[in-house]
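Teaching assistant's notes for section 4

Start the section by putting this record on the projector. Ask students to predict, before seeing the second block, whether carnosine N-methyltransferase will look compact or extended. Collect guesses on the board.
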Amino acid sequence: MFDRPDKVIRQFHGYYRNYVDHEKKHESKVEQFGVDFPERRSFYQLLAKGLRKNRSLVEQVLQSLQAHLPEKSIDEEPLDKMAYTTDLSYLMRDWSGEKAHEEEVLKTAKSILEMLGPYYDSHPSVLVLGAGMGRIAVELGEQFREVVALDNSPTMAYCFNHLMKGSLSFYDIQLKRTFHQSEMVKEIKASIKDRNDDLIMTAQRIHYLLGNALNMPLKDGSMDIVVSAYFTDVFPLDLLLEEVDRVLRPGGLFLHFGPLEYHFSDESAMYAADEFRPIFAKYGFDWITETTLENTNFCRPSSMLQQSYKNWQFLAQKRMVTDKGSMQKNPCLCLADAITYKVEGPLGKHHDPSIILYGGREPLTITPVLLEILKLMSNPIRLEQLLADFFHLFEITKEETETRKMVVKSLEELMEKGIVKAQESSL
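Reveal the predicted structure now:
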C-alpha cells in the first residue's frame, strides 16, 4: 500500500537480499572463531546458530517479497538503511511474555489508554502509526471498535501476521554489557496464541497495513484518533502533521507518546517540546493535555546498561472548524441524518424539560434552545443565515459575540456527535 508499490517492493527486496548476504558472511566468521578459540567453541557454535535462526526469519520475509515482484523486474537501487527493519528486539518486547518487557509495554499502553479514556465512545476508530510488532495496537483494541496498525517495515508486518497463526522463535543477541554468558545469546519464543482469549480475539481484529505514514492508504477524514507512540520524531513534524490532518475527521484526536530523539538528519526540523503547541495550532489543533511518564526502554535485567525514557505525552484535538475548514467559508449546514426526539421532565414556565435526541452516534440529551437550532436546519441553510434566524427567533436585537460563539460551539459539538454536517452548496 505504497505510492509506487513495484518500486518499493524492489527496493525492499534489494535491501533484504544484501542483508542476508552480509549475515551469511558474519556467520562464517563466527564459525571460524570456534575453530580459532577452542576454549569458547560451544559459545561460538551457539552464536552461529542464533545468527542463522534470525537470518532464516529475514529470509522468509525476503521470499514473501519475492512473490510480489513484477515478472519483468529491473534492479532497483536498494535502500541503504531501513530503521528497525531487521531488529527483532520489538518482537521480544511485545510478545515474549518476559516480565520486564510486559511491565514496560503495559505501562506505556496504560498511560495512553488513560489519556484517551474520555473518548472511548465518541471516537471509535484508532490509527496506530509505526505500529511495529503490533502490541500497542492490540492493547488499544480492547477499548476501541476499530484499530488500524500502520508500519513501513515488511519484517514487522510479516511477524505480526505470522503470530496470528503460531509462535515465532528467534535469538536475542547482546554481546556487550552482560554479566553472564548465558545472556549473550538467548533463545526467545514470541507468541500471541499463548495469551488470554480476549487478547487473542482483539489481535485478530487489528487491521495491519504496510504503508508510508506520509502517504497513508486511508480516505480523508476516516479516522477518529491517531496514536503516535515512539513515532512522531521519525519524520519532520510538518510533513507528518499534514498527512495526519488529512486522515483525521473534524474533532479527531492526535496522541503523542515518547521522547524526541529525531531519526532524521534535518536539524531545522528538530523542535523542543514547548514548540509543538503553536505548530499544532497552525494545523488547526487545540491542545488538550500533556504529561510525562518515565519508563524503561527494552529493559534487560541482566545488562550493565539500563536505559529509560522520560516520555512526553500529549493529546491534541483537530478543530471541528479549522481555518481551512468549511465553516469559515459560511458552509451549508444540514442534519446528517433523520433525527427524532423525546421530551422528558416537567413542562412549564419555570421548568426546562430534558430532550433526548436520537439519530447520531448515540442518544444525546440537549436543551430546548439547541432543539430550536436544529429545527432551523430542517432544510440546508448557510451558517450566517442560521445565525440571523436564531437571533430573530429569540428576539436578540444585537448580535452578541459571546452568544454567537456559543451557537457555533454547539454546532461543532453536534457535528462531532454526527447530528449535523457541513456541505458545499450552491445556495
